[in-house]
Design a protein that fits this description.
single chain; alpha/beta; Alkaline Phosphatase, subunit A; 4 domains; ten-stranded mixed beta sheet; four-stranded antiparallel beta sheet; globular; binds calcium ion
């Protein structure tokens, strides 16, 4: 096929690209580019479009202001690799095979980037991948090794290992902008998956942000000192700020005197410090040496130690978010300067939610709201501006993106396209219940295996494996999920209805293995 002389000439591009996508020439429609930005462990509590009490994120908020804010957006399995596999395949974990982070993604299976590629899109993944096997379905890939590092992280570029220098959120952003500007085939529409490592544990800030929030105090969540009555799995977890957050690994107290000892993760914490260059360490030490000295001086214990840890966690996490937001600003500015803003759908999301001290926790995993929910902001040119309240799930992302590209959604995908919602159309018969299944146990943080159903008002969860514990919450009267009303007189009919709906979803999605645990 002869190449068009110029990709800037709109009619030429329209003919070239629409023939790729089998659109009729009459429509003269340029296919929409897709920029899918996903952070790792970014809580909706720390995006000011959702909650402006903790931090201001003006750049991320811009996506919401010029587009749609989903207020009921959820994941299917609240942990990194499994969540990513759900997004790529549009299927729940049991069907895509990546049930926990010890899995290896079967890259030969159907994914939405592969289908886009087939339809003529240029596809790329830049940043965190975390699916063990090499990416498939991408014309270009530049991914972090495993979880990745915050400083000077190695990458794998189209299969070849390379070094990088600097702070990971900046580096990933630079690579993404460079790909959009210089590396892609500009005759084709693109789909770029820009996946940040930040703000994943251990929340190492950029050097330029180290002094931010240093004087900020944070109000403890009301249930910070949760005692987990009536919730056995919650009582037995190991993701508590008080008990499990590590002083050296998580809170960066790798002291030169080697006096602070924190257990199994201490050495990993000291190793992360050693990944920085001598110049980076000088800037780092300027901040943390003082924090370490103050910590030793204060000699804390009990509640004052717990609250110190919480405060330090919040300060570092928010510093990391500040850098994410600044870099989203750089990307939006690039799109604007390059004239791409009006022909690109921009998605901002996270691979799940995260606890900012609610129930006394950090991390994710549970089907409780803070980790089950995830931020989702989408700017679709010509699309809806404002809130979308319907319940959507990350298995819907693939179908939605395919729908936007005019590619038929395969019938074996579990998710459904929410493009009509994004276009502001009236949609009847939207789903009224979501299914969830978490598998990673026994494992770090000791969150039991569980599955469940959430309707607009209620949530029914079954913890199984080495436990058999049901929980029922009335989200309207108990949004913090502190009171398990399962088994209480008067809930019998409600439980029966929810169990019937749960079985209906298990059948719909084919999670027959889970059904064995229902009774
Ligand atoms: Ca994650």
């Amino acid at each position: 096929m002869e190449k068009p002389l110029s990709f800037i000439a709109v009619p030429v591009l329209a003919i070239s690209a629409s023939s790729l996508l089998s659109c009729t020439l009459k429509e003269e429609k340029r296919p929409m580019n897709i920029l899918y930005i996903m952070s790792d462990d970014h809580s909706y509590q720390t995006i000011s479009a959702y909650n402006d009490q903790l931090i201001k994120t003006p750049n991320i908020d811009r996506i919401a202001q010029e587009g749609a804010r989903f207020t009921n957006s959820f994941v299917a399995n609240s942990i990194s690799g499994p969540s990513r596999a759900c997004m790529l395949t549009g299927k729940h974990s049991h069907a895509n095979g990546f049930t926990d982070n010890s899995s290896t993604f079967d890259g030969s299976q159907q994914t939405y980037p592969k289908l886009l590629q087939k339809a003529g899109y240029e596809t790329a993944i830049i940043g965190k991948w975390h699916l063990t096997s090499a990416p498939t379905g991408f014309d270009y890939s530049e991914i972090l090794v495993g979880q990745g590092d915050y400083y000077n992280a190695p990458f794998i570029k189209n299969g070849e290992r390379i070094k990088s220098e600097g702070y990971v959120t900046d580096v990933i952003t630079d690579k993404a902008i460079d790909w959009m500007e210089n590396k892609r085939d500009k005759d084709k529409p693109f789909c770029l998956l820009l996946h940040h490592k930040a703000p994943h544990r251990t929340w190492m800030p950029d050097l330029q942000d180290l002094e931010l929030f240093s004087d900020r105090e944070f109000k403890l969540p009301d249930n910070f000192y949760d005692t987990y009555e009536g919730r056995q799995a919650a009582a037995e977890q190991e993701m508590s700020i008080i008990k499990d957050m590590d002083l050296v690994y998580d809170l960066k107290l790798a002291d030169k005197e080697n006096e602070i000892h924190s257990g199994a993760l201490e050495q990993a914490g000291r190793n992360m410090y050693n990944l920085m260059t001598p110049e980076q360490r000088v800037a780092w030490d300027k901040h943390y040496d003082r924090v370490i000295a103050d910590f030793k001086e204060a000699n804390l214990s009990g509640k004052s130690l717990a609250e110190w840890k919480y405060r330090q966690y919040m300060r570092d996490y928010l510093r990391v978010i500040h850098s994410v937001d600044r870099n989203i600003g750089r990307v939006l500015q690039y799109l604007e300067n390059a004239g791409l803003l009006e022909n690109t759908m921009i998605v901002y999301t996270s691979d799940q939610g995260f606890y900012m001290g609610e129930h006394g926790w950090f991390d994710k995993r549970f089907m409780y709201e803070e980790s089950f929910r995830t931020p989702l902001l989408i700017r679709l040119p010509g699309g809806k501006k404002g809130d979308i309240e319907q319940m959507v799930q990350n298995i819907d992302y693939g179908p939605t993106i395919l729908d936007l590209a005019g590619v038929p959604v395969p019938s074996d995908m579990h998710g459904v396209s929410f493009l009509p919602l994004l276009r502001g159309e009236k949609v009847d018969n939207w789903r009224t219940a979501l299914y969830y299944h978490f598998y990673e146990y026994p494992a770090e943080h000791a969150v039991k295996r569980h599955y469940g159903i959430r309707t607009e008002r209620y949530k029914l969860i079954h913890f199984y494996n080495d436990i058999d514990s049901w929980e029922l919450f009335d989200l309207q009267n108990d949004p913090s999920e502190m009171h398990n009303i399962y088994g209480q007189p008067g809930t019998e009919q409600l439980v029966a209805e929810l169990k019937e709906k749960l079985v209906g979803l298990q059948k719909l999605y084919g999670d027959f293995n889970a059904m064995k645990y229902n009774n």
